[in-house]
Each structure stands twice: as structure tokens, then as C-alpha cells.
Amino acid sequence: MERPLLLPLMYGMILFPGFFHIFLLQNSLYDRYVIHILALFTLAVLGRFLKDRIQITAWGLLLIAASAWLCHAYGGLVSLAALSPVFVYAALPGRLIRIQLLALHFGAVYFAMLSQPLSWRIGILLILLFMAAALAYLQQAITNKNTVQQMYDDLRRRYYELDESHRTLLLFSRQVEGAAQAEERTRISRELHDDLGHRLIRAKMMMEAALHVVPADPDKGMALLGQIRDQLSAGLDELRSTVRRLKPPSEVTGIQALGMMLEEIGREHGIRTSLTVEGQPYPLYPSLEIIMYKNAREAITNALKHGRPGAVEIRLVYAEGEIRMSVSNDGAVPPPYWNNSRTAGLGVSGMRERCQVAGGRLEIEVEPCFTVTTRLPVTHQEKVL
């Protein structure tokens, strides 16, 4: 309980009984009585400027002594003013100090009223005990209210912190997705330039040669035209494959997208494919799903290009705080330099960079079969029912 609330009550406890007691005094005692009342009131007002707990305790002891002497000297209604110090120690922290001061106050009032009627004495002491109990209850209620208010403020602060973290994570996921897409666009542009571009340039040169050969040697010209057709057909297939790798199907994500990709690859290349899921699946941020899909596509493409496998397997492991995706194949193992960050191809570097942007890592194993594992941290998990 705060002293600004208690001090006005204490002032009233001194002034009102002191004022009405004037009418019961003899004229010879009037001047001295007024001085004593004003002195007690002045002492009460001085407590407004005290801040230290020890100073407030000493001030409360002075009030108890002064009000008890005033009660002993004049009696009557002034005895009610002797109860005013209860507003001082009731606001002090610590139950033990409050009980000690209450006992001291009770004893001082009791001995100051020995000359007064027993009924009046008992009534004043009961009022003192009632006031002390009421103020203790009120103080406890205010303390509980302050505790609840503090807890509410802490919860509100943490809510704002979580909301800010949520916005930061959303921004981070967009940045990861943008970085992954930018890296993928760079890789595809190089792939188009290196593969499709070279095919088209070669077909153009062969076409120019055919224009000169056909009039003089039709058979050789027809052979060149057949080669041009094969080059354009291979370039068209390469272009279709590149476009399919731009992104996962927009209508499906996660496990379903990986399953559809494996089904398509198995149908086109005539190899066995399988998808295994371990643990209880939970939702992932779109940026993580994109990274996993692109890494799986890249790992399978590299396996088809370099290893000529007969079977490809994807294993998803939903662990606590992490998701792991392992892409394995039974094809030929690439040379050792393939796993070197300096000499690795653009595809491997892209997979590794995508993992690093999301705070994860890429692992490559050759035993018992060639396996590329993508490990990504999961900061928010929600079990799917």
C-alpha cells in the first residue's frame, strides 16, 4: 500500500477527533491543547518527505509515542487520534515489522488510557485491532493486484516480442525463398547457356553448312538435316526438363510434391523410386519446402546424369527441431572432387548454399550407397492430427 493513499487518512484521524474534542475542554486548557494537536499534525506531515524504510519506521515510533501521550493527557475523543499511527506501519513491507509495531502501538494506547473508563478503553483497542486487520487485508489485496498487473505487463511484453519474432521469421523466410529463387534462376540461366545455347549454336552452324551442301550433294545435305533435327529435339527436351525444375507444382507442396516428382522421374527414365517418411509429419515454412524440393530435384538430376542409377530413394525424417531429407541412389559414385566445395559443380554448390541460407547443412556419403542429405533446422513445429 502506498503512503500517498494512507497519509490523508492519517491526517483526518488526527484533525477530526482533535477538532470535536475542543468543545469538551475548559478554557484554561484550550491554547495548550491546540498547540499539541498542531504539533502532532506537523509531525504527521513531515512523514511525506521521508523515503528510507528506517526513517519511516523511526517516524512511526515517534507518532506512536506522541499520540499516546496526547491520549494520556486529554483522553476523550483525542484517544481516537492515538490510532492514527496504524496508517504508517501498515504500509511498511515485511510482516514481522508490522506485527512488532502493532504490539508496541497496542501497549502504548493501553497504558495511556488506564485512567479512562474500561468500556471506552476496550472499544478503542478493538477499533485499533480492526483497523490493523482491515489495512493488512487491503494491503494484501493491493499487493496481489500489483502482482497480477506485473504478470499481465510481462505477458504483454512477451506477446509483443513473439509478434516481432514472428514478423522477423516471416521476413527471413521470404528472404530465404528469394535467395533460393535467385540462386536457382542463376543456375538455370547458366544451364540454358551451356547446354541449350550450345545446341542451338551448333544447329545454326549445321544449318548454314546444309544450305551450301544440299545443292551439290543432296544425300549429304539430308544427313545434315537429320542431325539438325536431332539437335533441336534434344534441345527441346532439355528446355522442358529445365522448365519443370523451376519450381515444385504450385498446387502441391511437401511430401506430395516429392512423391509426384519421383513418380514422374521413374516413369520417364524407367527406374525404381521410393519415398519413406519417418516420424510424425508437421507443417514447414514454404521456404524450407522449396529448399527441400529443389535439393531433391538437383540430387536426382545429378544422379541420372553421372551415376545412371537403377533405383532412387528419398527418406524424410521429421525430428525434434530438425528435418532431414536423404536422397540415395545405387548408381556409380562420382569422383572424390565432386564433394569439394571449390571444385564441385554449380548444382552441388547451389544445394549447399540453399542449406546455409536456412541455417542448415548439406552432407554427402558414399557408403553403403551414394546419399545426399539436406538437414534444415525447424524453429516452429505443429503436429498434424
Folded structure, characterized:
The model is unreliable at 381-385 (pLDDT under 50). This protein has a five-stranded mixed sheet, covered by helices on one side. The chain is an alpha+beta fold and 385 residues long. The chain is built from eleven helices and five strands; from the N terminus they run H-H-H-H-H-H-H-H-H-E-H-E-E-H-E-E. Strand 4 (361-365) and strand 5 (370-377) form a beta hairpin.
Gist?
The chain has 385 residues and is of the alpha+beta class. The protein has helices at residues 3-21, 27-46, 53-74, 78-81, 86-89, 95-112, 118-213, 218-244, 254-269, 286-307, 346-357, and strands at 272-278, 311-319, 322-329, 361-365, 370-377.
Number of helices: 11
If you average the pLDDT, what whole number results? Answer: 80
- Total beta strand runs: 5
Low-confidence stretches: 381-385
User: Per the principal axes of the C-alpha atoms, what is the gross shape?
Assistant: rod-shaped
> What is the H/E order?
HHHHHHHHHEHEEHEE
Q: Report how far the terminal alpha carbons are from each other.
A: 50 Å
The Cα radius of gyration reads 45 Å
Report the biggest beta sheet as strand number plus sense, adding barrel if it closes: 5 strands, mixed
Helix content: 55-70%
Kindly report the spatial arrangement of strands forming the biggest sheet. Answer: 1-2-3-5-4
- What is the beta-strand fraction? 5-15%
Structural class by sheet pairing and helices: alpha+beta
Assembly state of the chains shown? single chain
